[in-house]
Amino acid sequence: MARKDFKVISEWVKKDSRILDLGCGDGTLLKLLSEERNGSGYGVDTSIDKIMKSLDNNINVINANMNNKLDYFSDDSFDYVILAQSLQVVNDPVDLIKEMLRIGNEVIISFPNMGYWKSRFYLFLKGRMPVTSELPYSWHSTPNIHLCTIKDFKQMCHTNNFTIVDEVISSGKGSTVSSSLSNLLGESAIFKVR
User: Fold this and answer.
1) What's the pLDDT score for residue 193?
2) pTM of the model
3) Domain count of the fold of the chain
4) DSSP of 77-139, one letter per residue?
């Protein structure tokens, strides 16, 4: 079963697009976009195991660290640059988004919302960092270094003049949440940015 954010991303990506997927994992998203949208492009990942799985999925993949400048890609190389559920693991999210906007016409970013009511409740009741389906690691073994809320992300976009073109906020059951309560009721968020 495909991840919830993959369905929205697939709906947003136009047919025959050039795509760069940062932190592509096993290449599932690029494979989906190739099949459903006739998209083509590259994945970027550092895990040799995930790169091998991407290759098994017939995905073009580059072994590179997205925390470094993406100088090997020229300006406007792609229609879309995607960062799906990886924002929280990058060293400098603002610099990375700037690079993504340099090399892509549109940027799609999905991430878990640390402001989700279940995460708040978990922290309140147990006094420990939450472990959820979107954030499945204990605090001491997590790759996540920059957890944020939906409000945090929107403020960062505003501060850096990143224009949010579209957004979908999903509840834990996969339904869409209204924007007025998104920071509290949204388990994960997907943004399209220019």
Assistant:
1) 98
2) 0.93
3) 1
4) -EEEEEEES-GGG-S-HHHHHHHHHHHEEEEEEEEEBTT-HHHHHHHHHHSS----SSS-S-T
**Residue 120 belongs to domain with CATH number:** 3.40.50.150
Classify residue 129 by burial, with Cβ atoms within 10 Å: 0-12, 13-18, 19+.
middle
Q: What is the pLDDT of residue 4?
A: 85
- Distance CA(183)–CA(193), nearest Å, equals 18
Q: Are the beta carbons of 78 and 99 closer than 8 angstroms? A: no
On the 0-12 / 13-18 / 19+ scale of CB atoms within 10 A, 34 is: middle
Please report, as a single letter, which amino acid is at residue 26. Answer: D
Instruction: State which residues of the chain have pLDDT below 50.
Output: none
Q: At 183, which helix (H) or strand (E)?
A: helix 182-185
